[in-house]
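Tutorial sheet, problem 5. The two components below are modelled jointly, 542 residues in total.
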Amino acid sequence: MPPAISVDRVSVRYRIPRERIGSLKEYAIRKMKRRLFFDEFEALRDVSLEVDAGETVGVVGRNGAGKSTLFRLIARVMPPSVGRVVVIGKVAPLLELGLGFHSELTGRENIMLQGTLLGFSRAEMRRRTPRIVEWAELEEFIDAPIRTYSTGMAARLAFSVATDVDPEILLVDEALAVGDEGFQLKCHQRIEEFRKAGKTVLFVSHALTQVRENCRRAVWIHEGRLVRDGDAVSVTELYHRWSVGESVALPQGLVEGTRT
Amino acid sequence: MSATSPAAVGRTRVVYDSTEHRSRAFEEARALWKYRGLVHELIIRDIKVRYKRSVLGIVWTMLAPLLNMVALTLVFSTILKQQITNYPVFFMAGAIFWAFFSQSTSSAAAQTQDSNEIAKRIYIPRSVFVASAVGVGLVNLALSIVPLVLILLVTGFPIHPTWAFVPVAVAIETLFAAGMGFWLFTFASRFSDIREMYLVIVQTWFFLTPIVYHPAIVPAKFRFALWLNPLYYLIQTFRKPIYDGVLPSPGLVAVSTAISLVVFVSGWIYFSNRAERFAFLS
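Model answer (structure tokens):
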């Protein structure tokens, strides 16, 4: 069986104007004066990764390492500059808290909005709404505007929508950092159910304990390169040692122990 | 690994392969159809949010053109002594035509930035945002028919049977507005000042188009400015059945339709071929 996600020697390059030119006026002036310079920024360099259906993989790395870019590739938000990405199955990203929610709309209206953002039909979302509300334990508040919700309530609703839509591949990007312990446990259980149902989960988190609890495998992305790929415990351990300043052997060409 | 062919994995599965490129214009159309529920939700959201916390609510949409009409009627019929019979009706018909065009296109230009926060994290065909901008404009257009009919009744102006042609005129205008929306959305993804620039252009365009004045008063030597203005043909197509009580001539309808089709199709193709680059927006 082919892997659910296969990222094959992928690079992503952003072309950044050396001086930021955001306006047509400036662009025209510079073009006329032949003063347009671009820098290339490689968010990912030659990354290869295969994830089998049913695997739960943690992704660690410091901010700006390229984790979100990797997720965007898999969610087909952007194409790779070089290489190939093949994804088999429906992908649902678990959005960062509140993204796509509108505070003036009620919980119910937001479920419809969020569900259709993920590509579902309105009829389908109406059918799923009761179950989503039940899991989020928001029966009493579902017809109140989201602005009246606590952070935890909004997080429960977001998680409930994203996981109820029954994706084959779930992308979790720092979304579980909020909420109380009860919520974290519930999310953990749901990810476990996902895993048991043979679904694929990709999990970005700075909370290394969460990565270890939820994933068997982890990858470490550093400056756009995939530097480690292995079992979650040893990869997070290594990443942790590097983060606190211990010298860790990274593949050649990478500067050791530089942090911001 | 690269030997993995999507064909080998069964037809029912969703497969995304970044190296596979069918016709982009076709793919975007298919994606837009799949996400039509989202277009619907975005239109509802826009309208609900706008009216949820206001006292007058939906009445605003109807009140705004009415107030405008009163002011402009005073200016143009009393002060400028312009001779147009039943100026309120003449102006109102033009005003709701204009409001639809300017609102939906400038909203499409603004969507580039407004939708980016979410669209750079999950895959959404961006044409959804242009479609919903135009959709919101259409809803407002439908609502502002109410004050127009009100004016007709109050001034005793006849409701001509040619009103039946109005939906066709609206359809032609919708094509044009959507096409412009696609061009603007794509431009605005490259340059952030397009949005502001367009607002200025729309202002000027308003006065170049015979909305508040009758095209007949334009001196012969400036007529070419009317002929070069696509909205001249569109407003005539729209206003004739309401105000003059006649159907627009087949020639006029043909020109309007041709212009709108060209703008729409070219806009769609340009937009969908640039769509992949939208994610690189910061």
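Marking note: DSSP finds eleven helices and one strand in chain B. Full credit if you identified this.
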